[in-house]
Amino acid sequence: MERWFAQEVFAHDSQLKGYVRGSFPAVHDVDDVVQESYLRIWRARAARPILSAKAFLFTVARHVALDLVRRKQRSPFVEVKDFETLFVSTDAPISIEAADRAKHIELLVAAIDTLPVRCREIFVLCQLEGLPQRVVAVRLGLSENTVAVQSARGLQRCEAYVRRRLNAQ
User: Which domains, and CATH codes, for the chain?
Assistant: First the structure.
């Protein structure tokens, strides 16, 4: 598997970094996106064969970068460079609701990560970004019916995944 990784995946390192830099200027740490992409493709390859490593790698990198950009847009926090200037109180307990909400968000993210690539892309655009199916269909060059079916499948699979995990606890 290491030979496969070196020949089929890592061989595109500089091209991948250029793609992430050019396509996602809001991403400041390109190396983090690339490393996370490598980790995800390694895990995916361990589970099943990958027909086109390069295409899969660039798709994974796009998802990682988009997730990072979305997270930064939603985050009310400002990045802090000098941690010594912060006053942090460790005595304040985390509310049960906040901890529970964070756990459910983690679970949803894990569920989304299990979706097939195209289904995940459609699910994120329709369900998370709230784009109309018509817009997603045009953007991805698919029929509106395909987008509707894949979005519904993604929702069903995510719900089933979350239910299974919650029942297992």
Answer: 1-76 (1.10.1740), 96-169 (1.10.10.10)
Looking from the CA of 90 toward its CB, the CA atoms found within 13 Å total 0
Supply the pTM of this predicted model: 0.45
pLDDT per residue as tens digits for the range 95-148? 677 667 777 778 888 888 889 988 988 988 888 778 889 988 998 899 999 999
Q: Is residue 127 packed enough to be buried (19+ CB in 10 Å), middle (13-18) or exposed (0-12)?
A: middle
DSSP code for 48: S
